[in-house]
Amino acid sequence: MAPCQTQAVRLTVWMDHWQMDCCGTPFDTGATVAWRLRPATDLDWLSTALPGTAAVDAVEDHHGGDTPPTTGTVLSIATLHCRHDGRIVPGSGILTPVPRAGKWTGDLGDRHFAGFLIQLDTAPAA
Prior knowledge:
- By secondary structure, this protein is mainly beta.
- About 10% of the residues lie in helices and about 40% in strands.
- The protein is globular.
């Protein structure tokens, strides 16, 4: 009998700017990470900033409580900057591919840094 093969699962992960600035560890494209992920239930504003954006599968949460870490390889990282006028300005989001996610990412003119969109490949749970 042939051994069971597992396939990687690709996730789109959101990381809020404050998660990285508070207690995040900078990471690069190609890095192996172990993050506590929770469902992406509070990101309605993202489709306002970036209409037509693919769905986000999970949110990285350093304060995720007892959620077990998900290990994966970072395939890509992009910063998101957008305008605010008391709310997100529709269509004002700019995604910029970057090789590294670090602390204290700056604003782009009148667009504030909101966080990172990350493509993560993970192995399914055994």
